[in-house]
Amino acid sequence: MQIGIFAKTFAGTNPGSVLASVHDAGYSCAQYNMACSGLPPLPQNIDSGTTREIASAVKKTGVKLSAVSGTYNMIHPDVTFRNHGLACLEILASQCSAMGVSVITLCTGTRDREDLWRHHPDNSSVDAWHDLRTSIEFAIAIADRYDVFLGVEPELGNVVSSAAKAKQLISDMQSPRLKIVFDAANLFETGSIVEQHEIISHALGELSEHIIMAHAKDRLPNGAFTTAGQGCLDYAHYFRVLKASGFNGPMITHGLKSEEAASVAQFLKSTAIAADFELS
């Protein structure tokens, strides 16, 4: 297992300094965001100087880029918005090889017009699923052209809101390019420890062969998100079941302050070792 962090946890628009902060906090990999290069998260243009700077920072710091964020609302009610997102996704994918990254993370989206992560009742509609399939089909064609993988993440507020929906999407699309980003804290809000264990174990059983990356954040008893290790998510169970599922990829933490980064790295490393993972 590799322990990593969202690069944008650290302030700055110079990839060298940002990835140096990632390294100094104790992480071997990162999920990159183009905002760390002073660009929009999903830019309309990425020049060769930017990609060279990122590649140089990776080489200098030794921090591997496990993924780059390509999130936009894939089922936004306005098709113009969706088409713009796809066009920017292609620009990002075209530069992944130069940046040394092979995974783009996506957001399956919501019918909410304003908030990418907010639930909308129409997310469960036939039309929403049709629009998602259309968006994913175009995204897979882009991934094929540029030899990258796409990581979708089940989120309670999105159209792919559960492990069952994620499995359905993979079955529908039948593409080896489509993978899962697994975040246990996204699969429940509140509930007993027994319920939590059942949800996580079942989800990993459904999705294990498709998981390309895992995420680490936490839940407070009231359902709000918090820093990994500071809430009620049973991380010992999470890591044990991940290990049993055969996962051995990057575990990327996010939703924390930069000053918490070093202590969270230690927490994740010690939990991984206790679950019999080898760290790299």
List keywords for this structure.
280 residues; 9 helices; alpha/beta; single chain; 8-stranded parallel beta barrel
What can you tell me about this protein's structure?
Strands 1-2-3-4-5-6-7-10 form an eight-stranded parallel beta barrel, surrounded by four helices. Strands 8-9 form a two-stranded antiparallel ribbon. The chain has 280 residues and is of the alpha/beta class. Helix 3 packs parallel to helix 5 and helix 7 runs parallel beside helix 8. Strand 1, helix 1 and strand 2 form a beta-alpha-beta unit. 46% of the residues are buried. It is globular, with a radius of gyration of 18 Å. Helices cover 41% and strands 15% of the residues. The N and C termini lie close together (6 Å).
Q: Uncertain spans, ≥5 residues at pLDDT below 50? A: none
Radius of gyration: 18 Å
What is the tally of helical segments?
9
| Counted beta strands | 10
Give the rounded overall mean pLDDT.
Answer: 97
Shape designation: globular
The helicity comes to 40-55%
Order of helices and strands: EHEHEHHEHEHEHEEEHEH
Biggest β-sheet, characterized? 8 strands, parallel, barrel
Strand content bin: 15-25%
How far apart are the first and last residues' alpha carbons, in Å? 6 Å
Structural class label: alpha/beta
Strand order of the largest sheet: 1-2-3-4-5-6-7-10
Write the layout of secondary structure elements.
Layout: E1 2-6, H1 15-24, E2 29-32, H2 48-61, E3 64-69, H3 79-94, H4 96-99, E4 103-106, H5 126-146, E5 149-152, H6 163-173, E6 178-183, H7 193-207, E7 211-216, E8 218-219, E9 225-226, H8 235-245, E10 250-253, H9 261-274
Parallel strand pairs: 1-2, 1-10, 2-3, 3-4, 4-5, 5-6, 6-7, 7-10
Antiparallel strand pairs: 8-9
Helix pairs in contact: 1-2, 3-5, 6-7, 7-8
